[in-house]
Amino acid sequence: MTAAQYLESNKQKFLDELFELLRIPSISADTAYKGDVEAAAFYIKDKLIAAGADKVEICPTAGNPIVYGEKIIDPNLPTVLVYGHYDVQPAVPLELWDTPPFEPTIRATEVHPNGAIFARGACDDKGQVYMHVKAFEIMMATGTLACNVKFMIEGEEEVGSTNLGPFCIANKERLKADVVLISDTSIIANDTPSIDCGLRGLSYVEVEVTGPNRDLHSGVYGGAVANPINILAKMIASMHDDKNHITIPGFYDKVLELSAAERAEINKAPFNLEEYKKDLGIGDVWGEEGFNVLERTGIRPTLDCNGIWGGYIGEGAKTVLPSKAFAKISMRLVPNQDSHSITELFQKHFESIAPAGVKVVVKPHHGGEPVVTPIDSKAYLAAEKAMETTYGKKPIPTRGGGSIPIVALFERELGLKSVLMGFGLDSDALHSPNEHYGLFNYYKGIETITYFFQYFAAK
Amino acid sequence: MTAAQYLESNKQKFLDELFELLRIPSISADTAYKGDVEAAAFYIKDKLIAAGADKVEICPTAGNPIVYGEKIIDPNLPTVLVYGHYDVQPAVPLELWDTPPFEPTIRATEVHPNGAIFARGACDDKGQVYMHVKAFEIMMATGTLACNVKFMIEGEEEVGSTNLGPFCIANKERLKADVVLISDTSIIANDTPSIDCGLRGLSYVEVEVTGPNRDLHSGVYGGAVANPINILAKMIASMHDDKNHITIPGFYDKVLELSAAERAEINKAPFNLEEYKKDLGIGDVWGEEGFNVLERTGIRPTLDCNGIWGGYIGEGAKTVLPSKAFAKISMRLVPNQDSHSITELFQKHFESIAPAGVKVVVKPHHGGEPVVTPIDSKAYLAAEKAMETTYGKKPIPTRGGGSIPIVALFERELGLKSVLMGFGLDSDALHSPNEHYGLFNYYKGIETITYFFQYFAAK
């Protein structure tokens, strides 16, 4: 049986198994789901074993476990280290999901006329990581695995991969490989394949502003006591100037400015501003003066509030002058900014702009480094050829806005470059209610991965 | 038996009854407590009947009912209309209460060494309104009621008294009186009695800022799409200039500027800035340039956020660029601003400053008009003399920062002036966790009210 025949006759099974994985609410940001996170790890482990992997193991860490497995067919052949994550983003706000986030269902959409799987993690990253497990099963079952493979599937990607670095350091020998292959990014469209070759880094902090030592009656005290919500709003507002530059001193010092030629390269990607605005339902785009949308999301750093809360947020009215207000703030970073320094700059600046009437605390969450991956390596060329084979078109190299902090980590700790061969779409509502992943993308991904191994193993 | 003897021998009973009332969570802002709100109305009704009131009735309105009762001893004698409210503020955040908000307990505090009752509504306004019911019982039981009395106790004060206006208009004859007596304000300290003679008005709005039509991945879209939290922060920040003046065009047009003599009068109230800061745990006060704390809270309008929310507010980190952000914003008003016009000015301004990338909706909640009450009326002088009798000191006339919108309403609809003879303390944590009311204040209030009736009835 050929690989293509095996895939064709196992489509329903591959889908049923993914559904089972998607039903496990493995939310890493909330410790209440600790048991589910572990259940997802065990599910991946079982399927790797069933597909024929050796030395499969649930490796404990200080946080969530990492699933490892490998198949060494010949030590003289190249080795691909497949990375992915089985944890998912929180599913709130639940009321905005058309179907429950952990009860996967298939529905057609405009860009997925043949149906898409709706569930938290459908695309990010359970759907994409599971393609690798199934591609491996195909190659094992049909005797077409052409080189060695190692799997490292973690459970803390959505909370900063805190324990992956120590794991890599402690397992350098075991993780030896020639390249890391990751499917956790997007293509431009189902008829326009692309490969991400630049990723933004991330600094993520939580801030707390405290005014009076207790909630106050806004009538009795209002006007004489600094209101932490108003102050927090003022502080957040001051983080951008009127050209939407970020005002933290030193923030742009290490930003790599691209040449006109490099900017022109980026702007070759197909982009339609009117469609972009229509898709998002916005009257206009917004951002740093002097850059367009592709540049703002690809090569420029940002500062966004991801959450804010304080005071009375229930039904009706309460005339309270609250004691505290909070915000979660993240900054996307570009080469050569580094997450640790930017977090420090933020902290220093945020504390310095707090007026006398309040106290502020800045708590760093997690970070990740920006990276640029090569587009002339053997692995990149194998991925390019694999996509050209399955899509009938050469993929476009793009700069992605998201962060996969582990790419920098692999380079630093394992000396390995990565190839980001992802298959999702930006419109798949990653991190949002109604996340989904096209059936077309799921099966096309599995097929493309088998070609990648074939081309990468070739002399 | 004298009034004083009756009070002395019924202290425990008066306390037990108040506890029973405080156990009813009559939160008017949240419709989930509708049944409790009604239970509180019935409790007041029963106690008025038991004390000897006539024509006691639960009067339905479009919202929560109003309890009415009266005792006309002689149509030729003056009539006091007692107003109060049996509804309370929400009790959230519950985790900041040392004891549950609806299980009253007594504990001593620094300013209440003889004990204070801790419960939501202990002071605002169940404790204070119930003093009137018990003062009435005393006067009835001891044959000392010296003039007529009518009670109008409502259940929507904390949500803007929406249905009190229509009730007053529809019951003008029944509500005929010579003065309205209200205990819903504070004195300066337990050894420094005072009477509020100015109250700020209120405009309360809720705003919603919508950016993209769905929550987005902040890595993929961040930097190119207006983030509604950042925009809301910018809009809120812009509502005050660098002198903390409010920037809404026309906002100050009708503000009554006080003369130097009037400002001097207000500044006669005892005030210690260091103690004020220490009590609130703040490094400095804050507010409009050119005014001190007493002026900022007494004679100047304000704009405060009472609540804000948007994006991910759970544990950990979520890199979301949210679709929506919300805030509850209230403005305290002074003579001669009016609530309706200020709400309109806010709405117009807020809509005008929204950038193209977002849509905003402003939803007015409730409002109330600012008032100044006379300090030379027969009723004010009776209150002054009553306090002088029980406290041994003449009360100081003060300008309060809070809003009791119904004072303007009574003037407009019933042609009646009010006397604001309250007995709480600003430090009693009204609208806050651990609200409390001194036992000293509760009994002193009951005693003072009986004297008020005596002096007011005197020729």
Q: Count of helical segments of chain A?
A: 14
Mean pLDDT of chain A: 94
What is the CATH C-level name of the largest domain in chain A? Alpha Beta
What is Rg of chain A? 23 Å
Low-pLDDT regions of chain A: none
CATH topology of the largest domain in chain A, what is it called?
Aminopeptidase
CATH architecture title of the largest domain in chain A: 3-Layer(aba) Sandwich
Biggest chain-to-chain interface with counts: A-B, 103 and 103 residues
Shape descriptor of chain A: globular
How far apart the termini of chain A lie comes to: 25 Å
List the helices and strands and how they pair.
2 copies of one chain form a homodimer.
Chain A: H1 3-9, H2 11-22, H3 34-51, E1 54-59, E2 66-71, E3 79-85, E4 105-107, E5 116-118, H4 126-141, E6 148-154, H5 164-170, E7 179-182, E8 186-187, E9 194-199, E10 201-210, E11 216-217, H6 218-221, H7 228-237, H8 260-266, H9 273-280, H10 293-298, E12 302-311, E13 320-321, E14 324-333, H11 339-352, E15 359-368, E16 371-372, H12 378-391, E17 396-399, H13 406-414, E18 418-420, E19 424-425, E20 436-438, H14 439-457
Parallel strand pairs in A: 3-6, 3-7, 7-18, 8-19, 9-17
Antiparallel strand pairs in A: 1-2, 2-6, 4-5, 5-20, 9-16, 10-14, 10-15, 11-13, 12-14
